[in-house]
Amino acid sequence: MITLKYNGNWAFIQRFYSVRDEAAARKAGVLTAVLFLVFPAFYLLPAIAARVALPDLPDREMAYVAMSLRVLPEGVMGLMLASMFAATMSALDSDYNVMSSVMTRDVYQRLIRPAAGNRELMWVARLVTVAVGGIVLVGALFIGGFGGAFEANRLFTGLFGIPMVVPLVFGVLWRGPRPAGALATVVVGIGVGLYLHAHSEVSWPVATLIEIAVSVATLWMSGLIESRDEAYRERVATFFTRLATPIPDTDKPLEAPEFRRALALLLAFVLAAASMLYATMGARSLAEPGGLLALVAAGTCAILAGAFYLCGRVPQTSGRPNRSRD
């Protein structure tokens, strides 16, 4: 389920839109996969340690915060809370932007008002963003009824995420599936998910595998009968031809050396500021393990800041003028 979710997540896919060519997209995919494989272990360590250090914790979802309050000094705890809020806002604004783009371009402009102008589309996008944000806020008020954030995420990802992602992922791998098959996959997958959720005797891992198998089988069966629509077959052939055709060198954007230097200096400034914050907070708690860890983090950020500063100060004369793709 996690593999399907990561490969079909709209916000995650955006990183492939911002690369130079296919080789850069492949590198971004490999780097992302490695990071998603390694970093969850660090996220899970506090929760795992809480089972031993805080066996009587009444709310399991508070394990991360409870362990942080126990081992982190005051300043680092505040920084961690700020980081959690920042990460949450970053993830939400990405999802809101993607949702508003899909609803505005793919639904409103394509199906409701094809002649809509930019000003009208901008207002629709803003209204969609507000509506989606309101739905999320209301859902957050009642999330306790689902057993907590983790249980709610697991439930809705299983019910709706799998059936919606399967057509997205396998639609670019198989030529056969039809649009009606994609719609049938969503409907059948959600129906199977609801049925399995109503039968608690079926464990969640088994129910997830069944829903994935049913969704994939439904999509695959929709391609067993070839479409008789010649125009549709031509569109499919054109799509896969473009998908297999590398981007011409003339269409690849180039970065100006000044942009790279400015980006390196910006990273150096941010890391230097983080280093000073860690050093200030660690100096107040030298007797605690958290204070020593804060000093280690301060030294690491300082070294990285120096490296990026040197990269930004070194002139790069081999770059070519910047070009952007229309």
Distance between the termini: 36 Å
Strand content: under 5%
Count of distinct strands? 0
Order of helices and strands: HHHHHHHHHHHH
Task: Estimate percent helicity.
Answer: over 70%
Q: Please count the helical segments.
A: 12
Biggest sheet: strands, sense, closure?
none
Q: What radius of gyration results from the CA coordinates?
A: 24 Å
> Runs with pLDDT <50, length 5+?
318-326
Oligomer: single chain
Structural category is: mainly alpha
Average the pLDDT over all residues and give the rounded result. Answer: 82
* 3D shape: globular
Give me the secondary-structure topology.
Blueprint: H1 2-8, H2 10-17, H3 22-53, H4 63-71, H5 74-112, H6 118-141, H7 149-170, H8 179-198, H9 204-221, H10 230-244, H11 257-283, H12 289-313
Helix pairs in contact: 1-7, 3-4, 5-6, 7-8, 7-9, 8-9, 11-12
